[in-house]
Amino acid sequence: MRYAARVCQVTKEYVLDGGTVRALRGVDLDVPEGDYLAVMGASGSGKSTLLNLLGCLDRPTSGTIWLGDEDVTKADDDRLSEIRASHIGFVFQSYNLIPQLTVLENIEVPLIYQGKCGPKYRKRCRELAEMVGLGQRLGHRPTQLSGGQQQRVAIARSLVNDPLFILADEPTGNLDSATSEEILSLLESLNRDGKTIIMVTHEPDVGARTRRIVRLMDGKVVSDRRLDNKEPCEANAAI
Amino acid sequence: MTLLWLRTWQVGIKSLLLHPLRSALTVLGIFIGVAAVIWLLAIGEGISRKAQEQIEGLGANNIILRTLKPPSEVTDRLRGLMPYGLTRDDYARLTATIPTVTRALPIRELRRRFSYKGRMVDGRLVGSTPDYAEVTKLEVDRGRFLTDADGREKKNVCVLAAGTAEKLFPFEDPLGESIHVEEQYYVVVGVLKPRMPTAGIGGSLAAQDFSSDVYIPIETLRTRIGDLVVTRRSGSFEGEMVQLSQITLRVDKVEHVMETAELVKQTLALSHRIEDFGVTVPLELLEQARTTRLMFILFMGLIAAISLVVGGIGIMNIMLATVTERTREIGIRRALGAKRRDIVRQFLVETVSLSTVGGLTGVLGGLLCPAVTKFIQARIEQAFPNVMAQLPDVIKAVEPTIVPLSIPLAFIIAVTIGVVFGLYPAMRAAAMDPIEALRHE
After folding, report:
1. B305 lies in the same domain as B408
2. How many structural domains is chain B composed of?
3. Does B189 lie in the same domain as B96?
């Protein structure tokens, strides 16, 4: 079995006001390719920290994290940036689009930092925008779009570099239930096509839509439960 | 790679256009700095060029000797009428003994009132030889200048400067008419073209003005008026015995001017016991003017540099605000794979764009300097003629000359300032922790 990410005995400590906060106390987590998992837990359980480590935005205090075949705990800041640009797709709770750029330009951003510019890549961005249903709004700015539309742009952006996995941080947190439903079905269909998705959420309804639920408490994995008959998706067609 | 730069630049321009007023004000700071560099240098150059022209008007080959009134304590001790100043003997000795002197002009000047049919004008009565016209670069407009024959025969003839002719003969043709100067009549034989004033000589700061002169042969002046001049002053008479007011020597080559001047001083020192003459060497003045010009440019440059630095601080200030405001965007870009140097590049591109636009418009504004100066001069002339008349000639008639080097210089400085003052905010942006930046509201 191939793994999109493997987390081995990872700890993370912060120094705050002289005291040390142990946000993660030895976490193990394997994410096979094609999996769709929800990381759940109360606030302060360490799920944001885990997300930052998986997103290569931070480095663990100890332990190793493998993304694909690479041990990212040894990478320097520039290399981490490269990994983020080429292997990770981010979807945030507050969409995090760049306000002065159009839909098309927002989708293009991760490619630019890989030095990929040109008509070929433009075409890919356009296709992704069409795939998430925004083919008619390529020239719009984020402020001209609804929340659900913005989140769909963000999902298109997370797919543009063909990442190892999509890291979604409460992707439906700012949306009403109808729009949440749209986003969740979009993510589900992506997963059916073979995309690995790691989602952080605290809503049980949202977690129930995934294949596997990992619960964190006080910096440790307290349960790792695969939902009934939901093995990782085998078909890994490139999107 | 070039595409990356292009894209970064596009994004930078977009971000700047998001706050058009803010960007315009920042550009204004650099615009003023760059335009100031060009303006100050152009005006400085114009003034010094004017001064240089005036000095050159004296003739770089010339040495000018002028009679000076000795300090009063010296004359008071001697009492009575004391002759002083340059003499005809000095003139003869200098022309005979110094081989590098090719030509010499004896000149006698007096303040007189000229009149014609009730019209009067005060001016200089200048007695000299026919060479005077050539050495002081006077050109005849109508008629002729003085001739050797006029001098030999001590004729009562005169040549009018343009200003005198205009005031005395506003309607008539002056040629052949006689003007009245203290009980004597002189027939006008020629009128000169207007001439630009030269720099002041003999220690006086006032420029030498040729516009209200009347020229007569020096021999005639000696016969009709003589060396003794009596002026009435508050009840008492005061006499002055002066033979020549000025001797202008022309030296054969410019390289010989300094040595000749030294020789002249030594020769004159033998026959003059008191300091009753002054030596002016235009060449010396010219060199002084060059030094002054350099100082002037340095000074102006300093002022301009200060305004550019102020502009740069403006850029830095705005960029720091922008960085804080766009913390979130920086976080997003970092999360999406931007390296620290990508962030630095992005903010630098923005500052350099601002300063480049400021630089370009500043150069355009700088090029307008001569036209604007002319316009302002004309406006002041129109609105406040009195104020204008009181201004020194160098300022009144200054024609700013754009120094070609100042354009690339100002522009390069502007761009450099964009980089230097943009670097700190850019590095601060790049140093942000992406997680913190993403959390920023």
Report:
1. yes
2. 2
3. yes
Residue A190: which pLDDT band, with cuts at 50, 70 and 90?
very high
Closest residue in B to A56 (Cα) is B335
Under DSSP, the state recorded for B127 is E
Check CB contact of A90 with chain B, cutoff 8 Å.
yes
List of domains in chain A: 34-60+76-226 (3.40.50.300)
pLDDT tens-digit profile of B143-199?
899 888 888 888 889 999 888 888 888 888 888 888 988 878 899 999 988 876 665
Co-location of B253 and B335 in the same domain? no
Mutation target to probe the B interface, by most B beta carbons within 10 A, among A51, A88, A109, A170 is A109
Max Cα distance, chain B (Å) = 106
Q: Six-digit token pair at A15?
A: 């120094």
Strand pairing category for A165-169 and A88-91: parallel
Whether B268 and B333 share a structural domain:
no
Give A232 or A178, the one with higher predicted confidence.
Answer: A178
CA distance linking residue B199 with residue B338, whole number of Å: 66
| pTM for this model (two decimals) | 0.71
A-chain CB neighbours of B331 within 8 Å are: 96
**Is the CB of B342 less than 8 angstroms away from the CB of A99?**
no
**Has residue B60 been placed in a domain?**
no
Check pLDDT > 70 for residue B204.
no
| pLDDT band at B138; cut points 50, 70, 90 | confident
Mean pLDDT of chain B: 84
Find the domain containing B308 and state its range: 2-55+288-439
Please tell me whether residues B295 and B420 are part of one structural domain. Answer: yes
Residues A196-207 pLDDT 10s: 999 999 889 999
> Which residues, 6 or more positions from B51, have their beta carbon under 8 angstroms from its beta carbon?
B199, B289, B292, B293, B394
| Interchain contact, A55 vs B329, CB within 8 Å | no
Residue B123's pLDDT is 87
Beta strands in B145-235 (DSSP E): 157-160, 178-181, 184-192, 213-217, 228-233
Cβ contact, residue pair B335, A84, below 8 Å = yes
Spatial separation of the C-alpha atoms in residues B294 and B150, rounded to whole Å: 47
Interface predicted TM-score (ipTM) of this complex, two decimals = 0.93
Tell me which residues of chain B have a C-beta less than 8 Å from any C-beta of chain A.
Answer: 1, 3-4, 6-7, 11, 14-15, 18, 328-329, 331-340, 342, 434-435, 438
